[in-house]
Amino acid sequence: MLILQCPYCGINADETELAAGGQAHIKRETVGSDDNAFEDYLFRRVNPKGVHFERWRHANGCGKWFHAARCTMTLEVFGTYKAQTFEPPQNIKDAISAKRPGWKWGDFS
Amino acid sequence: MKRYSAFAIAREATRYHQGWERAWASPDPKKRYDAIIIGAGGHGLASAYYLGKNFGITNVAVIEKGWLGGGNTGRNTTIIRSNYLQDPSAAIYEKARSLYETMSQDLNYNVMFSPRGVIMLAQTHHEVRGYQRTAHANALQGVTTEWINSARVKELCPIMNIEGPRYPVLGGLWQARGGTARHDAVAWGYARACSDMGMDILQKCEVTGVMSEGGKVKGVATSRGDILCDKLGIVVAGNSGHVAEMAGFRLPLESVALQALVSEPIKPCMDIVVMANTVHGYLSQSDKGEMVIGGGTDSYNNYTQRGSFHHVEETVRALIETFPILSRLKMLRQWGGIVDVTGDRSPILSKTPLEGCFINCGWGTGGFKAIPGSGWGFAELMAKGYSPLTSEFGLDRFKEGRFIDESVAAGVAH
Hints:
The structure holds 2 protein chains of 2 kinds.
Chain A: E1 3-5, E2 12-14, E3 19-23, H1 35-42, E4 51-57, E5 65-71, E6 77-82, H2 90-99
Antiparallel strand pairs in A: 1-2, 3-4, 4-5, 5-6
Chain B: H1 6-13, E1 32-38, H2 42-55, E2 60-63, E3 79-80, H3 87-101, H4 103-107, E4 118-122, H5 125-141, E5 146-148, H6 150-156, E6 171-175, E7 179-180, H7 183-196, E8 200-202, E9 207-213, E10 216-222, E11 225-234, H8 240-247, E12 253-263, E13 273-276, E14 281-285, E15 291-301, H9 309-322, E16 331-342, E17 348-351, E18 357-361, H10 371-384, H11 397-400, H12 406-409
């Protein structure tokens, strides 16, 4: 069973306590964006084999949204971090680099 | 190819069964093919088969990184039905179901198609209205289904408890001509027929890159060397996003694990397929006597071909209320497959931004039933650039807002 630590309340939560919220760090498009940009925003997903960034909600706990860095090939969790950010914090990126040198995900690496 | 027949069995019986040929050849890759299909699962092999059979294109290679039929084709719960709500879905799934009826004769390979009938249970009032609507839609589409009441459900499936307190059975959508087939045999039958037409099935050959020139596909780089082609079909289910990335485009789908389990074998007790979408469980009995149970998908991206245990628990917990007989059974095996799910729960059969490259993906949790129809349509799309069966399933439907919304029609499990 997948276990993620909620960065707000510090609890190690089982996946039954959490709700998956899909890909993280999606750039929101707005008035003036063209059709392609909207298609990217609404539908196209990274769907990587390997390092992935996701949104999760501690639904049966503190109720807060947070982000997790995870490997979709091994289910290994690299770390979790608070949602008030546009990109993963450096310590998470370092933790991934230590285990998956040369990783790349969207604009991040 | 020597044909399989009762006579062949008698002939081989007289000579210690030493005359059986290998069902398909395992050649080395050629330098160049007219068409390459990536993925030797059901959909990929069916696509290759109909390219040869319907369009005479036989200089074809089917490339597979593992062994043929080793992905979702060998992992599904083998249910075949075509009771969909939307017209484009009904057309392609009904084409598939009708092709299944004659597949054994067509391929000279017994795929054990068993049109035993499929019920989709209505266990909430919302589902009652939904399935009655689907029955009306199916009548207009020429797909034979009917709405049946709970007494008729009980008659068709006596082991069912229709008066459960939490999930009472209020009726069902009955498709008498749906059923099951032997999933491996479908892949093997197509592979044998493709090999017989002179196509090359290249197993243990992993695609590592897609080569293009001036926006047009040129070939693929593989673990067994570069192979050139005029046309490329990507038919790789859960790995679609990964291969599309090699070809330089991104897809509107995500890969998640869908799991299934089987019980220990018991005596025959159920001769139809029952799907209970409210509780995300579906059930049939295999020829060996195992109760085959399909569960729900995990909610997060995953490529590990394992599913979460709590989904097994949820599925089984809900099913034993409707099927009390299951409560004492031991479960024998549990496994997962990686399915590629689109936003509208409908597949993508389409041209791609790379000229000459086509993609057949997004079958999500219900691809097995569609194999022959998908192959039929996708072969036409690859050969002629257009197919009436696939025209609504293009990649551009997301940008243009023309969804084929089956997530509403079929619930989660299908």
